[in-house]
Amino acid sequence: MKKKGATAWIITEEHVHRRERYFMLDRDALVVDQDRDVHSYNIHLKLFVDIGRPGRQGEISKKLFTALPLDEQLDAAIVAAKQTDHQAWSLPLQFPKEVPDIKTSDPRIAEDMENVMAQLTQATGKAVARPRESRFNSAELFLSVHDSELHLSNGLRHRSSQSRIYSEAAYSYSRKKPNGAVESDEYLNTRWAVNLDDLAIDRLFDETADRARHSLDTHKPVTGHYPVIVDADVLATLFNNHLSQLSSANSYHGLPFVKPGDELVKNATGDLLTITLDPSLEYGADTGAFSESGVSQSPFRLVEKNRVIATATDKRYADYLKLPVTATRGNVVVEAGSLSHEELTRQAPKVLEILQFSGLFADPNTGTFSSEIRLAKLYENQDGKNVKTTYVKGGSLSGSFTDNLRAAKLSRNRVKRSHFSANNSRGEGYYGPEHILLSDVSIVG
Questions:
Q1: How many Å apart are CA 305 and CA 291, to the nearest integer?
Q2: What are 320-354's pLDDT values in tens digits?
Q3: Mind listing the pLDDT tens digit for each residue in 127-142?
């Protein structure tokens, strides 16, 4: 506050307590290979300075270090910020004095992480001990609590906490070929969650072991266009990416933008999408009371029956474009459809269900996505009944959000999904149909 030239700032402090455990087999017994207890502390500063030009300001983002003199770091940040030139905008002038009570951290993890780690280790041991045709290779289990404080120069002080859980399982399957050679393949599966009740370790290990068992009984897909079923993990990525096209940031920067009144998916004939950003969803990956610039967040409907009805606008772009401020963060909530998973598999003579991609590449600007097929299941139908089911591996899939969701069918069962990455302090949350049937997807064998 005493530094000359500094006009506003946003300071975020985060303390992370993380427990990591890595498992392996030793003489057919599950053992802990590595066991770590990690604490980290980070301070991030976003600084605004006066550069002496009307309607313009300098801005810089900088990490601060407690081991270095603070004055020297701030002086260097001010000098660097004055070398930049941005359109001016201001932090919110008002904010609520009472923040709604939203559930972001599992109290069992926050209060006794060691006990939860012991319980999950025991659950992992039971899952591994279950007799299977495939062989357990390894597993990982991470627990963490992220305690954060947001400090703004307008007076806002907000504390929050989020728990995170990561589980990973790897199984392999081997068999002898007629010539005596041994062939083998491994299948690895992961799951994120914020709350213990959303983790389902047994299902993760059962699914991984079963898919490893079928990883050798596969053939390459035949090139063509198929109805394709994708699951909630894929949908979380596609929806979180594509909704950037409904933001005022895209409008301001000249990136692809879908304005209110337009169809999200042009000429849609299938189940019409209704989508809400919900920052209040219990134990969601992107549940939070405030945006990074201190704007209070609440559920915000973006799409109603495939019609875009609003634009997500934070304070910066509200000032730039003279628009009202809205919520800009939250878990993507998609209304359910009416079909069961089994009914989705019977919607065409041939339906391909993606069980896992090798790595999904999705472009938020074009809406296109592609990947190699790690494992899939082909349903061949006759008179509305599955007459043959085979496994597929290899080849590639490519599609488009706006093209392949045109005749989409949504499952009636909804699930919650979370995902976190090292390069983003916020997670990606999804609560919506567990499966969606995409139409006319290109497959190359």
A1: 27
A2: 999 999 999 999 999 999 999 999 999 999 999 99
A3: 999 999 999 999 999 9
Residue whose token pair is 């307590």: 17
Q: Could you read off the pLDDT tens digit of each residue along the chain, which spans 445 residues?
A: 888 889 999 999 999 999 999 999 998 889 999 999 999 999 999 999 999 999 999 999 999 999 999 999 999 999 999 999 999 999 999 888 788 889 999 999 999 999 999 999 999 999 999 999 999 999 999 999 999 999 999 999 999 999 999 999 999 999 888 888 889 999 999 999 999 999 999 999 999 999 999 999 999 999 999 999 999 999 999 999 999 999 999 999 999 999 999 999 999 999 999 999 999 999 999 999 999 999 999 999 999 999 999 999 999 999 999 999 999 999 999 999 999 999 999 999 999 999 999 999 999 999 999 999 999 999 999 887 888 999 999 999 999 999 999 999 999 999 999 999 887 788 999 999 999 999 999 999 8
CA distance 358 to 373: 6
Quick count: other Cβ atoms within 10 Å of Cβ 370?
Answer: 17
Are residues 358 and 384 both part of a single domain? Answer: yes
What is the count of structural domains for the chain? 2
For 377, the domain range is 224-444
Verify that 284 and 228 share a domain, yes or no: yes
Backbone angles phi, psi at 228, to 5 degrees: -130, 130
Same domain, 204 and 242: no
C-alpha distances (whole Å) from 265 to each of 16, 308, 405 are 40, 10, 7
- Type of residue found at 317: Y
Measured between alpha carbons, how far apart are the two ends of the chain, in Å?
Answer: 62
* Domain boundary pick from 190, 216, 242: 216
Query: What's the half-sphere exposure (Cβ side, CA atoms, 13 Å) at 291?
Result: 21
* 292 close to 268: Cβ distance less than 8 angstroms: no
Q: 262 with 358, same domain? A: yes
What does the alpha-carbon distance between residue 277 and residue 295 come to, in Å, rounded to a whole number?
15
The answer to the question of residue 1 being in a domain is no
Helix (H) or strand (E) holding 422: none
Residues 174 and 259 in one domain: no
Verify that 186 and 248 share a domain, yes or no. no
CB distance 241 to 368 below 8 Å: no
Q: Which of 216, 232, 258 is the last residue of a domain?
A: 216
User: Closest Cα partner for 164 from 428, 415, 357?
Assistant: 428
Global pTM reads 0.93
For residue 386, what are the β-bridge partners?
Answer: 381
Q: Are 354 and 380 part of one and the same domain?
A: yes
